[in-house]
Design a protein that fits this description.
143 residues, mainly beta, Jelly Rolls, five-stranded antiparallel sheet, 1 helix, 3% helix, F5/8 type C domain-containing protein
Length: 143
């Protein structure tokens, strides 16, 4: 039986769609991987927003854990992987609850990602302006 192993996000390349007021110090992507639950990534207004993750090794992605700020969660998000032509194709779709507790989203089956980018694309935020705020982001693979 396979076990879940957390992938160290500081061993990946991260990109985000936007940062609130371009204030990377207080709201940038580094806050997703600093291990501090008091810091956050805060997007600009507008939908969709996304986080792109490029693992530095082949992984067998099976789940993602996210702690949104209540009121700034996505109503829906899609996990997508990049195709050879540069487009992104959906792997799985989820509907988070609008609260500030850690939520775990399990893929129906593990998805192998071999050092190519995949995205978490957030649609339809509970925030009127479409902002997304995330305090914790974890990804897990089968080992």
């Amino acid at each position: 039986m396979a076990s879940n192993i957390e992938i160290e996000l500081n061993e990946t390349q991260l990109r985000v769609s936007s940062v609130l007021n371009k204030d990377n110090k207080n709201y940038g992507k580094k806050n997703l991987i600093d291990g501090n639950e008091e810091t956050c990534w805060n997007s600009e207004a507008g939908s969709p927003q996304w986080i792109q993750i490029t693992p530095m090794k082949c992984i067998s992605l099976n789940s993602i854990a996210i702690k949104f700020q209540g009121g700034f969660a996505a109503k829906r998000f899609v996990i997508e992987d990049r195709q050879q032509d540069g487009t992104f194709t959906s792997i799985a779709e989820f509907y988070p609850d609008n609260h500030g507790k850690l939520q775990v989203f399990r893929l129906p089956t593990a998805h192998v990602i071999d050092q190519i980018p995949f995205r978490l694309t957030f649609y339809d935020s509970y925030d009127t302006f479409g902002r997304i705020i995330i305090y914790v982001l974890k990804i897990y693979e089968n080992k």
